[in-house]
Amino acid sequence: MDKKLFRSILWIITYAVVLVLVIVKFDDLRGLFGTVLGLFQPLFIGFAIAFVLNRPCHAFCRLYSRGLDRTRAKGLARPLAVATSYLLLIVLIGAFFSIVLPKLVESIQLFLGSMNGYMQNVQGWLNALLSTLHLETLDLSNFSELIKTALSGVVNTLTTAVPQLVTITGNIISVVVTGFLSIIFSAYMLSGKDKLLSQCRRVLKAYAPKRAAAWVTDVVHLTSDTFTAFVTGQLIEACILGGMTTLGMLFIQADYAPLIGIIIGVSALIPMVGAFVGGALSAILLVMVSPVRTLIFLIFLLCLQQFEGNVIYPRVVGSSIGLPAIWVLTAVTVGGGLFQFVGILVSVPIASVLYTLLRRNVHKRLGEA
Fold first, then answer.
1. Helix (H, G, I), strand (E, B), or coil: what is residue 55?
2. Are the C-beta atoms of 367 and 237 separated by less than 8 Å?
3. Interatomic CA distance for residues 337 and 200, integer angstroms
């Protein structure tokens, strides 16, 4: 028998056996896969931290390198940049838990305390409108209790987030160990990034064909650039939009400025539809207080989003990830359906990478044709 034919038959038999084993033992393999992923959890978390801190670390490294260029401490630029990046992260987390979170809880509790009065006002407006149209009046007491229950759950989640995290993870020792190992991994990745990348390139060149190695390197660079641009862009846009919304609401003397600002900021993390979702949720809260203030808020938010999207975002973030709007909406829908909020965040850059690779391949084939 020809060697090439024998090898092809062997590959087909091996593939069929593996496929049957996967189908028959799917539940066991899924449990084993989950266990293995759990063992590598500190590495994954460390990689995520290093990825988020990579850009500020690079900026600090360039700053320190210029300052220490002609001194004996030139080699300290990278360690100082890593330490400064972690200090910045600690300051931001501390500011959130000490300033933003208490204001958010206070706003929600204040809203809950005034809920009955707001619902009576809304019911009065609606019943007046319905009576004018000669329609049956409404009773919104059940709706009021539903909103109270939902917001009370949010407050309980925010005030007990750390204890819940400890309970879900197992115990405090497990949380501390996982966090410590994640920080160690991320610090090593940031400080030894150039060495790690060099080692990966050497391994790839040693074991992969030249053409395949070049393709993998290109895909990795594309993925890194796309995720970096997307994560940086969405975080900056969310912070700017949330902060400017809070300041604008304080200026127009609207109620619940911190709560509305956080809603707008968090919803801005969702591409395309986030702004509409955040605006709708905020309007629902404000209309119970004052319909006139709600109209002013919507006009202000529309102007703010136009200004932020056309003036601030292009200058701070730069160009977009290059994905058409229809594919962004598709990626958000599919990602959210499969993996909830995390899927919404990561689906867009993943779709952008796949779209770019497909577009390149199509252009290449048409060019060859």
1. helix
2. no
3. 34
pLDDT at 167: 52
Task: Work out the number of other CB atoms within 10 angstroms of the CB of residue 269.
Answer: 18
As given in the structure block, the two tokens for residue 304 are: 């703010």
Average pLDDT over residues 121-150: 61
Which of 205-242 are b and which e, b meaning 16 or more Cβ less than 10 Å from the residue's Cβ? eeeeeeeebeeeeeeeeebeebbebbbbbbeebbebbb
The conformation of residue 192, written as its DSSP 8-state character, comes to T
Q: Which amino acid is at 50?
A: A
pLDDT digits (tens, 9 = 90+) for 14-64: 888 888 887 887 777 778 877 887 788 888 889 888 988 888 888 888 888
d(CA 65, CA 73): 9
Evaluate whether 297 touches 286 at the Cβ level (below 8 Å): yes
What's the rounded mean pLDDT across residues 307-323? Answer: 66
Q: Contacts by 192-199 with C-beta closer than 8 Å and gap 24+? A: 193/50, 193/54
Residue with tokens 């990561």: 346
User: In the structure, what pLDDT confidence band is assigned to residue 210 with cuts at 50, 70 and 90?
Assistant: confident
Round to the nearest angstrom and report the end-to-end CA distance of the chain: 37
pLDDT at position 87: 93
